[in-house]
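[agent] plan:
  1. take the single chain provided in the ticket
  2. run structure prediction with default settings
  3. attach structure tokens to the ticket
  4. add a short note for the reviewer (M.T.)
[agent] executing step 1
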Amino acid sequence: MTTPRNPPSPSMSSYENAPTRSVSVRGEDFAYRELGPEGGVPLILLMHLAGALDNWDPRVVDGLAARRRVITFDNRGVGGSGGSTPDTIEAMARDAVLFVRALGFDQVDLLGLSMGGFITQVIAEEEPHLVRKVILAGTGPAGGPGIDKVPALTIQATLKGALTRQDPKLSLFFTETAGGRRAGRAFLERLKERTQNRDKDISLPSFRAQLKAIKRWGRQAPSDLSDIRQPVLVANGENDRMVPSQNTLDLAACLPQSELVPLYPDAGHGGIFQYHDEFVTRALEFLES
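[agent] step 2 finished; step 3 output follows
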């Protein structure tokens, strides 16, 4: 077991000013932030494609941390974490488990968003004694419909965003309606609230490795979700163009102990950000039940 370079010291501060810490995981420093009350089962947040610490909506993190110990982190090779990003979801899951154990936890809850949801499913299946409860948002099972197209959609939106000087998350995470556009712009403004000690953006080699891992996940044989025995809460927008919303319905139908949050209306891949208040309330109810 390794020891955190800066020992965990949760606080009731906001995500805007939560300190960035590091812990050594097999010789590489993993960056993370921790906030919320001490005690209880910690909630580990696993991030989407290309995301680093500052891509979490502070309203979601702060809302959850009002009652739960919450930890966000950069997996291997991402943002402020050292090492090389692996190109399989399974290897990313092993790294996430090593991170959790490096912090000294023997039981955690997991919230996985998009690619983080892929990783979360692997951890829940392979480490049943480590994981108590699971929340899956904007994600789908291995071999799910349309998942192998995520890399192409992402690259297309990134190039379009560069040409139009528009953040690609607007089109990838939110609907094209007036309501979706308003929600997207508000989300992007919230991501700017932290102005000091911001995380590094993902590097191009790490981004490429993640794209490869997602394509492999989407082309794998369909998952046997019956092996995930933990209680699972499943959420998404009704019009997710990245990981099609049918995947959310499939997860809810096939996971043995699942609860489905009704798909958020006029929302897409970033549904839990667009409906952050409703999502936080439902997530806390689920985790505390």
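[agent] step 4 note for reviewer: The radius of gyration is 17 Å.
[agent] ticket updated
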